[in-house]
Amino acid sequence: MIPKLNFPGENFLLMAGPCVIEGNDMAFEIAEKILEITNKLHIPFVFKGSYRKANRSRIDSFQGIGDEKALSILQAVGEKFNIPTVTDIHSAAEAAIAAQYVDVLQIPAFLCRQTDLLIAAAETGKVVNIKKGQFLSAEAMQFAVNKVKDCGNNQVMLTERGTTFGYQDLVVDYRGIPVMKANGCPVIMDITHSLQQPNQSSGVTGGKPELIETIARAAIAVGADGIFIETHPNPAVAKSDGANMLRLDLLEGLLTKLVKLKQTVDSL
């Protein structure tokens, strides 16, 4: 069961981990370090890792180590550390498969309007985290929420991850957080993907990780229920999204500041 999200005195939820599962040792190293930090700061933690990357720019980009192997690693992380886990799904057929291994099914932003995918995720009975499409308004996400709830599953979260701005940049409209919270579900701020710079001529997505703290502080200030951060011990060698990841050894300092900020916001 996913931790209780937002009630007086409790911290924001953290969804964090590598972009993609690269191997057993890497996943366990990252999960153990994040859990050490979140236990110290009393932050509810969901471990994130994609078992397969299905939307790479180039055919020769790393997609994964094998679906079953990666899903088994996610399951093992959850069992060893007694924490919930989340992964992306890309088709209706994948929902029931991934649901055997993880606690939360994540709908990628590009697929948030896919009715069959939302229905399949809802019917697993798992928590469904829907990322807002880069091409959609916050108001439009009510229809994605309703598709899940109309299937009898009220365990829905929405995740803001920036809006397309031109061809190679994203911006975050923080008005969208209270708008999406009006749907009666928690809203997560995806910090690192909001700082991507897609569609680079090299075929490798760029990013602005130096602005991670800026995006995170603003999200907490306007009342986000949680934050989503991709992190890696050495983003320079990460097999996916390294350009916008947070270096793992910087996570504790950032979260410490955010906890203090949330305490201040809650006291107002």
Into how many domains do the coordinates divide?
1
The number of distinct helices, counting runs of at least 4 residues, comes to 8
Helix content: 25-40%
Q: Tell me what portion of residues adopts beta-strand conformation.
A: 15-25%
Helix-strand sequence: EHEHEHEHEHEEEHEEEHEEH
Catalytic activity: D-arabinose 5-phosphate + phosphoenolpyruvate + H2O = 3-deoxy-alpha-D-manno-2-octulosonate-8-phosphate + phosphate
Organism: Mangrovibacterium marinum
Protein name: 3-deoxy-8-phosphooctulonate synthase
Main location: cytoplasm
Question: Can you give keywords for this protein?
Answer:
single chain, 18% strand, 8 helices, alpha/beta, globular, 268 residues, TIM Barrel, eight-stranded parallel β-barrel, 34% helix
What is the gist of this entry?
The protein is 34% helix and 18% strand. The protein has helices at residues 24-41, 67-81, 92-99, 115-123, 141-149, 176-181, 212-221, 251-267, and strands at 13-17, 45-48, 85-88, 104-107, 127-131, 156-160, 163-164, 170-171, 187-190, 196-197, 206-207, 226-232, 246-247.
Detailed description of the structure:
- It is found in: Cytoplasm.
- Residues 9-265 form the DAHP synthetase I/KDSA domain.
- The protein is 34% helix and 18% strand.
- The strands form three sheets. The protein has an eight-stranded parallel beta barrel, surrounded by six helices. Strands 7-8 form a two-stranded antiparallel ribbon. The protein has a two-stranded antiparallel sheet with strand order 10-11.
- The longest helix is centred in the N-terminal third of the chain and has 18 residues, at 24-41.
- The two termini are 31 Å apart.
- It is α/β, with parallel strands linked by helices and 268 residues long.
- It has helices spanning 24-41, 67-81, 92-99, 115-123, 141-149, 176-181, 212-221, 251-267, and strands spanning 13-17, 45-48, 85-88, 104-107, 127-131, 156-160, 163-164, 170-171, 187-190, 196-197, 206-207, 226-232, 246-247.
- The model is unreliable at 1-8 (pLDDT under 50).
- The chain contains eight helices and 13 strands.
- Strand 4, helix 4 and strand 5 form a beta-alpha-beta unit.
